[in-house]
Task: structure prediction
Amino acid sequence: MSEVDLAGPGLWTTSVGSFPKPDYLTKARGQRARGEIEREELQELERKATREWIEFQESIGTDLVVDGEMYRGDMVAYFAEELPGLEIGGLVRSYGNRYYRKPIAVGAIGRDRPITVEWWKYAQSLTDAPVKGMLTGPYTICDWSFNEHYATRRDFVLDLAKVIRDEALDLEKAGARYIQIDEPAASTRMDELDLVIEAMAIVTEPLSAHTITHICYGDFHNAYPKMLDIPVDQIDLEFANSDYSLLDEFGDNPFTKYVGLGISDVHSHALEPVDDMVDGIRRALKYIPADRIFVDPDCGLKTRTVDEAKQKLSNIKAAVDIVRGEL
Result:
């Protein structure tokens, strides 16, 4: 397990990855899709929004910063658009009234060039705090795509794992000390958890960075403790949405990794009181030591408004400061 090089006794604050896009960027993305503005104009606004989110995180003292993914639409389609062997299909409803364009595997998956490295370098240039490298995991890319090329899902997933590994290595070479490989689909099919583990091993085996995966809103109780076999240093989990029920599992089978402790429900407009967040952190400390805990929202905040996201992040930081003062 890698060592964390952040200051302090633990309970480090971070975010899972995505933030809501400001109105000017949402408007510009629509204009770009209609051919009304040039790509360079959109990219400049994406850089502006990234800078604003970095500045906000610095203003509240976030320990491990994210770039907010201002340059992405969907977490799978973003990578599929850049990987040879994948094409972008039609719109598919994902949750609520949100849609994404589902990729289609039409040939062997490859990778011509780094996809996220320049954005990571830009974000890291804006702050002295470490910035996470953010990747979508091979199992989730497969699970959220159509397969018209590979004989088996395993073949599809393992080819994806090789290109995500290469992207992670390029991030590490660029200086990323924390790399997150999101696998939100990992807890939805218990019969394929071994495949998640096999693919993640391909991605993380050559890395020396602190590796993280995020798993959200799945069948946690059946996935645990098997999920501890996923070869990463840290697993980010949602706790607020389920009233911290997963902590009960840790009594019988101790959690052996760093944890991303989700203490704010990102699917709710309600702003959790700081006292409730404090209580959640205290409950977690009965099972996991402070120097193994990163505190964050349950999942990405992209579905909230900008104001809601900022309020939730500010309350998380306030709750952490209270509990740190008690330790």
About this structure: Residues 39-60 form the longest helix (22 residues). The chain is about 40% helix and 15% strand.
